[in-house]
Amino acid sequence: MMLSIEGLSCSYGTAAIIEDLHLEVNAGEVLSVLGRNGMGKTTMVSAIAGIRPPEVRRGSITFADRELTTMASFEVARLGIGLVPQGRHVFGSLTVVENLNVTARPPTSGAEPWTLERVFDFFPRLAERSTSFARNLSGGEQQMLAIGRALMTNPSLLLMDEPSEGLAPIVLGAIRDRLLEIKGRDLSILLVEQNLGLALSLADRIAIMGAHGQIVWTGTPDELRRDEEAKKNHLGV
Amino acid sequence: MIRRISLKTRVLLVLAAIGLGIGIAAPYLFPKYIVGLISLALIGGLFAQSVDLLAGYVGLVTLGQAGISGAAAYGVGYMASKVGAGFPAQIAVGLLTGILASLLFGLMAMRSNDVYFIMITLAQGMIVWGLSIRLYKVTGAENGLTGIPRPEPVNPYWKYYYLVLVVVVLCWMLLGIIVKSPFGASLKGLRESETRMRMLGYNTTAQKLYVFMLAGFFATIAGILLVYLNGFISPSSVVLAASALGVLEAILGGVGTLVGPMIGAFIIVAIQNIVSIYVDRWPTLMGLIFVVVVLFARRGLVGAISDVWNRRQQEVSLEPQSAQ
Question: How much is the ipTM here?
Fold first, then answer.
């Protein structure tokens, strides 16, 4: 098991967001966490990545046998957890190359390392815009850059927080195709999404998060496709 | 593959060559007084660059940098005038005191940001100023330390000028390498968002200490050069105004560039020492210049020129091409 969340409770000040969350991500799998707005998906990502707030009140998050709840975010990242944050948050005043180089780190496992050249092969569009400032990129290019930047940390677990947000379907399709290529190659992905289509096409397993961060449904993409009741009750689809 | 050099780079290279040419020829072109002022401006420029490394690249405005350069200058002055040590020992102690001050101040300031960082560094500068007044036996209090001779081989004013020129150009090149490196890019990332840098694996607290010490190192060099140029050091070199001047020079020339602080230093030295001969109210003039720059050229003179250049290039590229 790569990542294990046991009885996690998180809050912002006095507002409890997540209560007693249990979740596991296995090595090499893509787990997609779906859920409506305000269920606590981003709070969970922040808690895993060591970003404070939210405060972790109870429970544990273990990654490669290390407890993450007491770690600073930079220590979590150095363990091999790469983050593609919601809203992309690339460094606008840096060029594409600088954005990628600034996060470059040797791999923690024996996997083929992500280098600048490999990222450019993976996203040729970034190679074409290599000297452009990130603030001048389109939304899709910024998303590619955010993913490339996370890959340059050579993670063994990639946390992706709503990568589909604000992207045109054609751009999203291109990013999805790229992610399908790296899926399972020494890389686990925890994909937090509202876009059902992306989750169904990419994930090995799906978990639906309900109120207060409770996991209310788990299964495979095929099971979710067939389960109209779960889609209607928990996702409003 | 040969990379085509852009027009902008070519213009900058020509300007740099002209500047360096004038710099090398200065003792032959100008009288002693002006050469002394150029030395002062070069040292002031290096000091302002050290301020800009923090303010322009990391977004941490310091008001205590003169405390660090002053600590180095007092180290040299003490060894020269009180101990009577040789030049290697003077310079070694100057470097040591400056770097030690950087380390201590950096450890105090590295967990703060924004206005808190400004206040802490201001307090640090005031501590050095207070010590320079209180520690009479070490610093000479208000009288300062006088009679600090230059090293014999560079004692003549023009030889010392060349030493200053070489050291400042080398430091400038070193700073250029630093800000162009991935470390320099990480500093800009830190300026944009400390949280984001942390989640990408950067220990930003340590990173701030490194850059504070780097900036302190260049301020130390400036302090040592200045004490040998003036031959004395007094509390007026470590007052708040001395630190603020470095910030103003960087703002005037353009923060986040290395050439900007140098240009700012030359302008301020010229106003203080040449314009003041003809204009009684030169501080008012200086104030007016700052107001105009802040109002109409937020990115300083270099930023304004760069904006005009980029606009012009854009216009040229949009003009319809004439038929061949």
Answer: 0.85
